[in-house]
Design a protein that fits this description.
Blueprint (H helix, E strand, L loop, with lengths): L30 H11 L13 H26 L6 E6 L2 E7 L3 E8 L5 E7 L6
Antiparallel strand pairs: 1-2, 2-3, 3-4
């Protein structure tokens, strides 16, 4: 008995794994699809979410949004407008917004009056050089 060995060339290619999730380096255009799929499979409901959608509720939410937008525009104008103030305090809806200006920045402190929780925002001031 004789065994004949033949040299046969073998070809292969590299295996490349591409993740689907953009969290792990996948295509960022997949994020909406993945989120939609996850939300469709989610059987739990947020107990704090408002599920009422009557015309009165929609109107109240839109009105609140417009009022808050107007208030934020007034605060921004007081800080950065034509006649900027050095400091100020605005209270509304259980929150207090305090701002003060230094040489190189404006600091905003947003305080929740119920919990005492504070959020600090520091906005740098850029000086124009002519």
């Amino acid at each position: 008995m004789t065994a004949a060995a033949f040299a046969v060339p073998v070809q292969a290619q590299d295996l490349v794994h591409e993740p689907i999730s953009p969290t792990f380096g996948g295509n960022p255009f997949n994020s909406n699809h993945i989120l939609g799929t996850a939300n469709a499979q989610n059987k739990e409901k947020d107990p704090n979410s408002s599920t009422s959608s009557s015309q009165a509720d929609i109107f109240a939410r839109q009105l609140q949004s417009r009022l808050l937008s107007s208030l934020s525009s007034q605060i921004v104008d007081a800080i950065f407008g034509e006649n900027p103030q050095e400091s100020g305090v605005v209270s509304f809806g259980g929150q207090t917004i305090e701002f003060f200006r230094s040489l190189d920045s404006v600091t905003l402190i947003i305080t929740n009056d119920d919990t005492g929780e504070e959020t600090r925002i520091v906005v740098p001031l850029f000086v124009e050089v002519n």
